[in-house]
Amino acid sequence: MDIGGSHVSAVLATTRGRVLRASSLPRGPSDGFDATLRHIREVVDNVSSSPPRGNDLAMGVAFPGVLEGRVGEVLFAPNLRGWVGRNAHPALERTLGARVVVENDANCAAWAEHVLGPGRAGGGEHDLLYVVMGTGIGSGLVLHGQVHRGAWGTGGEIGHTQVPGSGRLCGCGNRGCLEAVAGGRALASVALEIAKASPSSGLGRLRARQGALSAWDLLREAEAGDAPSVEARDRAGLAVGGVLGSAVNLLGVPEVVLGGRLLYRAPGLLSAIRKGFREAVLPQVRSRARLRHARGWEHRNAVGAMLLAQLNAQGQSKSARRGRPAGGF
Ligand SMILES: [Zn+2]
User: Fold this and answer.
1) 131 Cα to the center of ligand 1, angstroms
2) To 5 degrees, how large is the angle CA 118–CA 22–CA 102?
3) Does residue 328 register a pLDDT over 90?
4) Ligand 1 centroid – CA 315 distance (Å)
5) How high is the pLDDT of residue 35?
6) Are 159 and 183 in contact (CB under 8 A)?
7) Local confidence band at 10 (pLDDT 50, 70, 90 cut-offs)
8) Does the pTM of the predicted model rise above 0.85?
9) Which of 157, 193, 163, 158 is nearest to 175 (CA)?
10) Ligand 1 centroid to residue 308 C-alpha, Å
11) CA 317/CA 295 separation, integer angstroms
């Protein structure tokens, strides 16, 4: 299941990622801890009358934030009110009455890509960095065939890499993060700045008509050739590409997969990202490092969470056979 920015969704899916049944409920921005748990219980009940039980079965939950340790203490969850400092794992197990594996949503998406994505056909461990461009910039890293969480669960969070020359305030509290330069929320702010500075630009006229502006407005105006919008879009795309290329140099992952709704109908943004990526990756491996746009897979996060729960269950049953106590997370 997936706790998304605007919806809570549950799916019943096969191990090959085919969704058999799905249920989704809208989630209000002011919904707190208890309201979100009630929505979670409701969507799960909608897709299955009998939650998985027993030591070798678990339910996977994709969580929109950074989780630390076995109890899944929430360190950071900018789009989920009332969860920071809570222990997500026991709360979800109590709510669902089942064993639960809870994981950062971008990590779930990265794992789904690792298990089911086309790069798998090349064999090997299929290490990859999965990047989600939406309101913010989330990412998940699969290294040596495993989700890499690092010391505090923050491993692979590429959205909070510093971009030289930018002092924009990020939702994490730092300044100059990639997310504060090129995330959807940041692009909406840039759109407003352009509209104010240049009332005769496409964005200026749009603001006069509709009041507020979104990242979509900036990207659409850029696709239509509005010069300040093109410049802002390309600056954001080059920054993303540069950070991703540097990540490839640092980690040696052969593939970066880009997902998220910001890229739909924004080919110019993708081109700028590709350009920044090519310029940043070491020339000696430039022809081999891949940057791929992920398409389709409406329930990628939920399916990835399910696959991680399945992996965890396999580990549990092996541990149990070896006579070790089974852990919960
Ligand atoms: Zn940040």
Assistant:
1) 15
2) 70
3) no
4) 34
5) 94
6) yes
7) very high
8) yes
9) 163
10) 27
11) 34
- Give me ligand 1 centre to Cα 318, in Å: 39
Query: What pLDDT is attached to residue 117?
Result: 84
Token pair of 184, please? 């959807």
pLDDT tens, position by position, 145-168: 999 999 999 998 999 999 988 889
Q: What fold, for 2-98+298-321?
A: Nucleotidyltransferase; domain 5 (3.30.420)
**Contacts (Cβ under 8 Å, ≥6 apart) of 190:** 218, 232, 236
Q: Domain ranges in the chain?
A: 2-98+298-321, 123-293
Bridge partners for 291 per DSSP = 256
CB-based contacts of 261, cutoff 8 Å, min separation 6: 133, 134
CATH of domain 123-293: 3.30.420.40
Residue 23 β-bridge partners: 10
Give me ligand 1 centre to Cα 179, in Å: 6
Question: 246 CA distance to ligand 1 centroid (A)?
Answer: 17
- Equal fold, 2-98+298-321 vs 123-293: yes
Residue 325 has pLDDT above 80, yes or no: no
